Amino acid sequence: MRILAIESSCDETAAAVSLDGRTILSNVVLSQADMHAVFGGVVPEIASRRHLEGIAGVVEEALRRAGLRPDDLDAVGVTYAPGLIGALLVGVNFAKAYALARDLPLIPVHHMRGHISVNYIAFPELRPPFCCLVVSGGHSLIVDVRDYTDMRILGTTRDDAAGEAFDKAARVLGLPYPGGLEIDRLAKTGDPHAYKLPRAHVDDAPLDFSFSGLKTAVRNTAHNAAQRGEPLDAPGLAASFCEAVADILVPRAVEGAKRCGRDTLCVAGGVAANSVLRARLERESAAAGLHLYLPPVSLCGDNGAMIACQAYYEYLAGVRAGASLNARATLPISASFAP
Ligand code: KG4
Ligand code: ZN
Asked: In what order do the strands lie in the sheet with 140-147?
């Protein structure tokens, strides 16, 4: 089954074609990051307008690279939630028109479920159930993936998402948006014990986490150094920050897997590209006797392949949308699609 899928939830206009879910025939991503970098973060209206300009060409290119014509497609998948509403609406409307005009089934896909499914693309032998740490710019979750379309949230952030914390810390350090990759690079030359940063925990919710105290500590560290006229050890602060984020996320992900009796841990989302996080996950999963799946960095950020893969499993589960499909800015990963 060949599915064309469209992703436009944030600042990447993306389209891909999957064959029976896990085989990716094409994956085209048009990033707007450069345009938003000038403003230090994503400007929603600019994102919507750029999606509108780019989407037709991106879809055409995805078909061309897959060596297919529109008539060869069996279904159209699209990210309908969560994300920037104006950005999502561009993809949803395009997908709706494309599917209705060709009488193809339209499959709505949850963006974070898409992130998880890159593990199916990268690891053909992987089957649910497993536990997954999903860490992106807008969301951070520990999820029990009971089946391809059956998810239970075990833990989540009480404030900022992990990627958001990276982007804000990067700003304090004077690094360009999106800051996660820049911090990762800078941290490689720094001492992870250079600065003492807090690791918060949430009473009565041991798998939940919080990044706001950590973010404030990074800001205060930089301000204090400036006020005292002392040089800031930027690589040390970046390394200490990465270490703190890994300290917060990794033990909770391992504990999540244990609590739901899973022997497999997967990782997903843009922050899953972080090298400190990946190294710590490898170490602590091995110590806990868990099989760890780390998807390639190239598939961690937003892309269309992840939506094209997940769309296949949503299709098998009977999920279909009609002409009234709407976008949702927020929606839990556990929610079933409600037409
Ligand atoms: O999943 P994603 O591409 O988009 C959303 O769904 O939000 O995640 C983007 C986030 C950004 O906050 C970015 O700074 C972060 O992922 N990120 C990283 C790294 N690469 C991207 N964070 C830490 N280390 C990285 N290497
Ligand atoms: Zn994402």
From this structure: 150-156, 140-147, 130-135, 264-268, 291-293
Q: What number of CA atoms fall less than 13 Å from residue 216's CA on the CB side?
A: 8
CA distance 54 to 253: 37
SS3 state at 43: coil
Tokens representing 79 are: 């990210």
Q: Which ligand is nearest to the CA of 113?
A: 2
CA distances from 91 to 87, 117, 130, 196, 257 (A): 7, 19, 30, 44, 34
Residue 283 C-alpha from the chain's centroid = 22
Cα–Cα distance measured from residue 40 to residue 330, given in angstroms and rounded to the nearest whole number = 23
Residue of 181, 250, 275 with the most ligand 1 atoms within 8 Å of its CB, for mutation: 181
What integer pLDDT is reported at residue 339 of this predicted model?
A: 85
Going from the C-alpha of 323 to that of each of 105, 131, 187, the distances in angstroms are 11, 35, 48
CB distance 150 to 143 below 8 Å: no
Q: Kindly report, residue by residue over 111-129, the tens digit of the pLDDT.
A: 999 999 999 999 999 999 9
Assess whether the C-beta atom of 184 lies below 6 angstroms from ligand 1: yes
Length of the chain: 339
Q: Reduced to 3 states, what is the DSSP secondary structure of residue 150? A: strand
User: Which residue type does 272 have?
Assistant: A
Dig out the tokens for 102 from the structure. 């060709």
Ligand 2 centre from 114 Cα, in Å? 8
Q: How many whole angstroms from 8 Cα to the centroid of ligand 2? A: 10
β-pair partners for 145: 130, 151
Cβ atoms of 96 and 325 closer than 8 Å: yes
Tell me which residue of 276, 165, 180, 259 sits closest to 218, measured CA to CA: 165
Task: Encode pLDDT of 142-180 as tens digits.
Answer: 999 999 999 999 999 999 999 999 999 999 999 999 999
Contact 16, 304 (CB under 8 A): yes
The pTM (predicted TM-score) of the whole model is 0.97
Q: What is the pLDDT of residues 83-104, one digit of tens each?
A: 999 999 999 999 999 999 999 9
